[in-house]
Request: fold
Amino acid sequence: MTVYYSEDHEWIEVEGDLGTVGITDYAQGQLGDITFVDLPQEGAKVAKGDSVAVVDSVKAASDVYTPVSGEVAEINEALADEPELVNSDAEVGGWLFRVTLSDPSELEELMDEAAYKKFVAGL
Amino acid sequence: MSEISEFEDELGLEPIEPAILPLDAWHRGRGARMVEFAGYPMPVQYEGILAEHLWTRESAGLFDVSHMGQLYLAPAEGAEIDLDAAIEAALPIDLSTLKTDSVRYSLLLDEEGGILDDLMVTRWQSGIYMVVNGATKWDDIGTLREYLPDEVNINHLDDSALLALQGPKAVDALARHVTGDTVLADLKFMKGAAFKLAGVDAWISRSGYTGEDGFEISIPGENAAEIAELLCGEPEVKPIGLGARDSLRLEAGLPLYGHDMTPDQGAVEAGLIFGVNKRRRSEGGFPGAARVQKDLSEGTARTRVGLALEGRMAAREGAKVLCGDAEVGVVTSGGFAPSLGRPIAMAYVDAAKAADGTALQIEMRGKRLDATVVPMPFVPNRYYR
Reply:
């Protein structure tokens, strides 16, 4: 099980060919209070870089881009009633969707935790 | 950087400093996240917009609104001029009914009746005090200079800071620190008075832009940090950023200049005809009067309304408003209303679709959100009348 990070502040935890995607703790801190999360349909085919979800905060709406291509396998139903989970538990309970990877080689273009930390520190 | 500075030192030049307001360092020390607003770094939030919003509604919040323009208009020394008449020729206000120490909402209109700004006008003993929006203050000064005779001095009180203490407990917290001829708690909504606040001269009016009871406090900029610190030392008071100021004013149904009103709209379609006082509507004699009178007699194609949305996705500025497949309007402000737990919006819609209860839709990111026209304010205001 490995976690990768994108420059758009998504994380993806990969186990076999299944990836769980969310936004990073840094991202939720920047967005502020999250009031609504618009998630993709289960079964939707998505391509790396597509805007597949929207995170609405009191301030503004922000796109979430999928860091890998594949098919949406599951969405986090808990967020419908508790969107604030993305604030309080961004990198575990506040996950957004699971995707069946169609091209695991795309993971190589993402950062590991150390690289992401360095990336954020430079912002 | 250092090389450039040394070079400048040799030439005796000073680097250009970005404009900074008196409370800049104080906000940063309080952990505010700063953003640029109206040309200044301003605090957008401290602990979080939701918490700050709700705190203001239940207790009291201190807002720094020093970016706004404070102007003082008075006859030039030795000039024989009727100040009221001169200002009435520039603004659609009826000054004959504005008593000393009273505050009134007014509008700065262009010659075609488009809204250049909204502003607060106060009659002081010696002249007229105005508070105008931060982003428009330089243009406003130019427009007023153009509208007013040379015998009227326009003084920009840019050494003064402006604080707003808003919320049901604002009066308790502030009363502990003021002295003066007026009892603070007796001051009515839209009235003001001179006080000593922690020993400093302060002009305080019972007014604000949150829909709550509260005060606006003009003080010398050099005393702003000590007074902000003093007020935030009260158990009822926390500092509040611009983010919550925006969600509070939206719930209160108060339009934000540059978004819910622009030079493209007139006073009537913006729903701000109360900013054109009654006598002036019939008499005219101010910039844009012809448009106001025409719009009043013939009506306007669109009008500003409040919309309550179904679901939790917020509509944002620029989103189309639809009725069936017809585009009938555009959202000018929208967001999640923390006190209501649902999204709300302001929009300009066709007059035929503006009645309360009209079912409309808002197009947002390819989705259609159901929305209903509702009366404003969305949250009842609690002014002390």
Observations:
- The mean pLDDT of chain B is 95.
- Chain B touches chain A through 20 residues (CB under 8 Å).
- The first strand of chain B starts at residue 33 and ends at 37.
- Chain B has ten helices and 20 strands.
